[in-house]
Amino acid sequence: MKIRQVWKRENLCQFAKAELSDYLFIVVSNREPYIHSYQGNEIKCETAVGGVTTAVEPVISAIGGIWIAHGSGDADRDMVDSQRKLMVPPEEPLYTLKRVWLSDEEVNSYYYGFSNQALWPLCHAVDIKPIFDEAQWSIYKKVNEVFAQSVLEEIGNRKAIVFIQDYHFALLPRLIKRMSPEITVAQFWHIPWPRQGSFQSCPWGEEIVRGLLGNDLLGFHTVRHCRNFLTTVNRMVAGSKVSYEKAEATVEGRKTEVHPFPISVDFEQLSQDAQSVEVKGEIERLRGELNLGDKLVGISIDRLDYIKGIPRRLMAIDRFFEKYPEYKGKVSFIQVTVPSRTEIPSYRKLGESIDTLVERINLKHGSGDWKPIITMVGPLPVTTIMALMGMADLCIVSSLHDGMNLVAKEFVASRCDNDGILLLSRFAGAAKELNDALLINPYDIDHLAASMEKALKMPRIERYKRMRRKRNIVRENNIYKWAAAIILELTKLV
Ligand code: F6P
Q1: Which pTM does this prediction carry?
Q2: Parallel, antiparallel, or unpaired: how do β-strands 248-251 and 241-243 relate?
Q3: Residue 406: CB within 6 Å of ligand 1?
Q4: Looking at CB atoms within 10 Å, which of 12, 21, 91, 414 has the fewest?
Q5: How confident is the model over 88-143, as pLDDT tens digits?
Q6: What is the CATH number of the domain that holds 432?
Q7: What are the pLDDT digits (tens) for 447-457?
Q8: 305 lies in which domain range?
């Protein structure tokens, strides 16, 4: 198999089978791929949406294995056996999902607390400062230990590869390696790794870095995140040997390879879905229901998170209508937000400030039945998301800092008509690959407003040229290639 080919689900399955079949393959993530919850007396099974499940499920489905995750659904306990396990996917069971139970206190301190109020803001260069709370840190450590135990009790004496997801488990790799050095451990860190200068504010920074150095392979989205991590190791861990050229760090004779693996989307599937009759019907319905007629449409689709830069984007829309009043009544911006981590005060406050801003801007510029900004609250059905992407003249991704941002890639994959303009923050990982987008500085409100105008009057030929180039990039660098590249590195290590 060559890494430079257009990878499909089938190729990835065959490749994984050929390379990893001798190993017990264990995936660890905080969020589970299938969540069972009660709807009245019925139990409903939901699939976790997002890159992790799309990318990792073909691998684990091909070779079998165990996916260990926090069981968060209220019906989860009623679906598992005495070992907290069940086979999934429900319609064609191919691998085992093992659920870990956490108390409310553990979830509050480990997930809402240390993961999302310390590590999340620490790794994203934004206005929100991390909260370092000793009690939360100690429960974060305990939860990592619980997961380590859960992994180790599955492996026994077998040859195994453990593939850990994300910042919820910074300590897990070392805990596993300490108990069983022969297990191959890899991790993908789905968020940025910050500059060493800001990371050193974390009181337990060295322990976190040492935890991650338990990995044989550690992946980030971009070369910059890898280099930031290596610099952090160099400065924080006494006696460490770091090589930027070889992309590795060695501590106490143990080596960790640190490579970029830019995550992506299922390009072919999205392209196919975008052309379905259902999506075409949904576009008609939305245009009617939202009173859009033949108006131009700008869209943004975000998890309600302060890293996404939503308030500044709204201010730029305000500036856009001030500077270019000829667009009043001719363009509407649709803002989809998906509530997230609502237990955390900064997330709740963000929601309130967005509502206030939208109301103010709509009052200031709106007239008759035309609204400058239309808001929709997600999660929305996939057909609706695809329809919004399909009808957009403009998609704005203005994250203040983002590991990758898959909405940008989804928008590109969904535009089989080669039309539509992507305005993309230069601080999103996706900007590295999609440099045919109109790259913006989300802090520069005037420039963002001017870029909106530039996009809306861009000649069709230029729109097509830019979109075609972006599509070729995402087609080749799809989610299956992401997983294949990680497997390829793993095969060199086992
Ligand atoms: O970007 C990091 C990430 O963990 C993604 O993997 C996930 O889609 C997103 O943040 C939201 O995470 P959650 O809702 O599980 O906190």
Answers
A1: 0.96
A2: antiparallel
A3: no
A4: 91
A5: 999 999 999 999 999 999 999 999 999 999 999 999 999 899 999 999 999 999 99
A6: 3.40.50.2000
A7: 999 999 999 99
A8: 268-475
Please indicate whether residue 401, judged by its CB atom, sits closer than 6 Å to ligand 1: no
Q: Is 221 in the pocket of ligand 1 (CB under 6 A)?
A: no
> Are 140 and 158 in the same domain?
yes
Count: domains in the chain: 2
Which atom of ligand 1 is closest in space to residue 30's alpha carbon?
A: 15
Ligand 1 pocket, mutate which of 190, 265, 305 (most atoms under 8 A from CB): 190
Least confident of 2-11, 232-241, 390-399, 417-426: 2-11
Among residues of the chain, what percentage have pLDDT more than 70?
Answer: 99
Q: What is the pLDDT of residue 410?
A: 96
In the prediction, which pLDDT does 3 show?
Answer: 72
**Structural domain contains residue 3:** no
